[in-house]
Design brief:
single chain, alpha/beta, Multidrug-efflux Transporter Regulator, Chain: A, Domain 2, Rossmann fold, three-stranded antiparallel beta sheet, 13 helices, 8 strands
Length: about 300
């Protein structure tokens, strides 16, 4: 289980309060999701300014982090409040029917029936109630792996799901970009002809965390370098790599280290390929297995 947020909560003095965009930045939870947790489930009760703006304390941030821990274990958001209120629970961990498996089953039913309306509702509801990196790691990644292969029906269901998902992500990114005023980050795919869903979900998660993220698809080493320089990117994320080989990755990273001091974060299978090389010789490169780890690593790099 990954812990998304870093230690920035300690920077908030006891007794001080922060607006909703700050608790979103610190925890990585979308402001839309925070409001849904408040309105639909009563999980947060922020203070209000005279103009009605929400203000959150360190205790609220700690509560969001605790909620994230239970979601990571598969507990549905609708059941979190009762669990947190169970003072008799102690250290006993309750039995949990994984919400991620339930959501995967519901999505499978929708795409098998090619029911766009049902699938759109599932995607919108899921992204409004759960943190984006968790959706990527616990739902989308295993689901897309399950859809891999050329057995009859899989390619068309895979294409249908990816198309509807990307429509939602692209619209959501456009809205979120207006509020992103942090450092610039370039996101690229590690190899050509790969599914672009997960890198774009990662890009959306970075925008929610208020980074100015740009996803440019697959670029070779030299073009990635040009893109990073043109954007003024502080960090480059290379994601995917189901078809990348070790020698291609080694060449790509050598070009980076020779020509740039920009930190490189590797995500997904490309991180596992990298570990098979000699990582001691690659300073400034940070392999991450999950999108939660990517977000934590980026926040720590920018904080340092």
């Amino acid at each position: 289980m990954d812990i998304i947020a870093d230690i920035e909560v300690d920077e908030i003095p006891a007794g001080d309060t922060v607006p909703i965009r700050e608790i979103s930045r610190v925890t990585g939870v979308n402001t839309v999701t925070l409001r849904a947790w408040e309105r639909r489930y009563g999980l947060l009760i922020p203070q209000r300014t005279t103009k009605g703006h929400r203000l959150y304390s360190r205790a609220d941030i700690d509560r969001v982090k605790e909620i994230q821990l239970w979601l990571g274990r598969g507990l549905a958001i609708s059941k979190v409040k009762a669990l947190l209120a169970d003072e008799q629970r102690g250290d006993r961990v309750p039995e949990i029917d994984s919400i991620w498996l339930q959501l995967a089953q519901q999505i499978h039913i929708a795409i098998s029936a090619f029911n766009r309306n049902q699938l759109e509702r599932l995607i919108e509801d899921t992204f409004s109630l759960y943190p984006i990196p968790m959706i990527a790691d616990y739902l989308l990644t295993p689901f897309l792996i399950e859809l891999q292969g050329d057995e009859q029906g899989k390619p068309v269901r895979r294409a249908f799901f990816a198309g509807v998902l990307l429509e939602y992500i692209q619209a959501a990114q456009s809205r979120q970009r207006q509020a992103a005023h942090g450092e610039k980050i370039l996101v690229v795919s590690a190899a050509q002809n790969e599914n672009g869903s997960l890198p774009q979900v990662l890009n959306y998660g970075l925008l929610v965390n208020q980074h100015q993220a740009e996803f440019l698809g697959y670029l070779n080493a030299k073009e990635s370098l040009l893109g990073a320089e043109a954007l003024g990117a502080k960090i480059v994320v290379i994601m995917g790599g189901e078809t990348v080989n070790a020698s291609e990755l080694q060449l790509h990273l050598n070009v980076w280290r020779e020509r740039s001091s920009t930190a490189v974060v590797l995500a997904g299978n490309v991180a596992r390929v990298f570990r098979a090389l000699n990582p001691e010789s690659h300073s400034g490169i940070y392999p991450c297995d999950t999108q939660q780890q990517v977000l934590t690593t980026i926040n720590q790099l920018l904080k340092g």
